[in-house]
Amino acid sequence: MAEIVLCRIDSRLIHGQVMTKWVNQSQANRIVVVSDSLAADEFMLEIYLMSAPAGVKVECLSRADAVKNWNEDQFGSGRVLLLLPDLASMKEVYEGGIKVTDIQVGGLGGAPNRKVVFQNITLDDADVEKLISLQEAGVNIIFQTIPEDVPQDFHTILKKYNN
């Protein structure tokens, strides 16, 4: 069975040096992207696949397919970096059976009604609700954009959000 060595939330998904650093840091040999929109867009999927680090197998699954494959032990083998674009996707796959113990929030872009909480990471009230729910389920949540950053725990981030 596959081992999820890093579960990362990043709206940019696979992107250049940052992803190469995380693959190296986690020693992942596979990236599984969970994104309904990317799984349905062959053109964009090709672009993302071409931007993956050399020697790393990448596949993209819809939320439903990711849950189904995980629960049926069809995720394959290897060390997986599970990559999701948003917290809604994370909460859905977690509740569907992909029970990760740790989540790294690495990039959630800005938009109206979102607050910057750490570097390029923004949250809104719906995100905070999802994070609280995951934390209450026993998930350890950290915020870290690159390996060189000192990880910020969710409690610290929540204080920033509420100020």
Automatic annotation (TrEMBL):
Listed InterPro entries: PTS_IIB_sorbose-sp, PTS_IIB_sorbose-sp_sf
Give all residue intervals belonging to the PTS EIIB type-4 domain.
Answer: 1-163
| Pfam families named among the record's database cross-references | PTSIIB_sorb (PF03830)
Recorded coiled-coil stretches: none
Q: Which domain of life is it from?
A: Bacteria
Question: Hey, what's the signal peptide range on this chain?
Answer: none
Subcellular compartments: Cytoplasm
Chief location bin: cytoplasm
Query: Which keywords does this chain's UniProt record carry?
Result: Cytoplasm, Kinase, Phosphotransferase system, Sugar transport, Transferase, Transport
Record carries keyword Zinc: no
Q: Which SUPFAM superfamilies match?
A: PTS IIb component
Is the keyword Transferase in the record? Answer: yes
Q: What is the official name of this protein in its record?
A: PTS sugar transporter subunit IIB
Question: What is the protein's species of origin?
Answer: Lacrimispora defluvii
